Amino acid sequence: MNTTSIAEQTAEYLLQIKAVKLSPNAPFTWASGIKSPIYCDNRLTLSFCDVRNYIKNSFAAIIQEKYKDIDSIAGVATGGIAHGALVADVLNKPFIYVRSSAKAHGLGNMVEGEIKAGDRIIVIEDLISTGGSSLTAIDALRGAGAEVIALGAIFTYGFQRAVDAFAASHCPFFTLSDYPTILDIAIKKGYIQEGEKESLTEWYKNPSAWGK
């Protein structure tokens, strides 16, 4: 399995369907207030059969090669639920999902689906930015008695804050593609001009200071 080719093909698909938009001259504003030349909405991938199938099959191939003897696949609400279910179907594994917070009524569940103490679980997420929502889900699964083997995401910005947070939580993670690959493919395929790459690279080095 060639993870470099997976990263490049995933990046091309995300750009092609505009799940990833690059706009250094008219940046987006994130909820945190950060000005960003990139916006990523991986929910769009579900509307394109070829892209959706490529993503689920790539996740499944990586899991089959690197992570043996898993019991279940878990999706993180909301973006990781559909992708997690698709991966579980390919692998013929049970599926569960993790809410962003515990239900305010009924059983008050945060983890939905059957989970048993000691279950070895791979978590599927659509995007890693700071890693906060992913690690909250991991903590919930561990609190329910599961052993989280790793987390997989479609795309990561690659922020050091997220890398450090996953390391502190002792949870490996892998992604199908990442920000540097997006930039390389965007240049090669003409989604951005060569002159725009510098601005996009500077943002990657220091997002909070970019554009000020």
Describe the structure.
With 212 residues, the protein is of the alpha/beta class. The protein has a single domain (3-205), classed as Rossmann fold (3-Layer(aba) Sandwich), CATH 3.40.50.2020. 40% of the residues lie in helices and 22% in strands. The protein is built from seven helices and ten strands. A six-stranded mixed β-sheet has the order 7-6-5-8-9-10. A two-stranded antiparallel ribbon has the order 1-4. Helix 1 (3-16) packs antiparallel against helix 2, helix 1 packs across helix 6 and helix 2 (49-66) crosses helix 3 (79-91). The longest helix has 18 residues, at 49-66. The mean pLDDT is 93.
Write out the strand line-up for the largest beta sheet, numbering strands in chain order: 7-6-5-8-9-10
Radius of gyration: 17 Å
> Which class do the helix and strand fractions yield?
alpha/beta
Mean pLDDT: 93
Taking pLDDT < 50 over at least 5 consecutive residues as the criterion, the unreliable ranges are none
Q: What's the helical proportion of residues?
A: 40-55%
Broad shape = globular
CATH topology: Rossmann fold
SSE ordering: HEEEEHEHEEEHEHEHH
Number of helices: 7
**Cα end-to-end separation:** 42 Å
Note the quaternary state here: single chain
Can you count the beta strands? 10
Major sheet attributes: 6 strands, mixed
**Count of domains:** 1
- CATH classification class: Alpha Beta
Strand content: 15-25%
In CATH, the architecture is: 3-Layer(aba) Sandwich
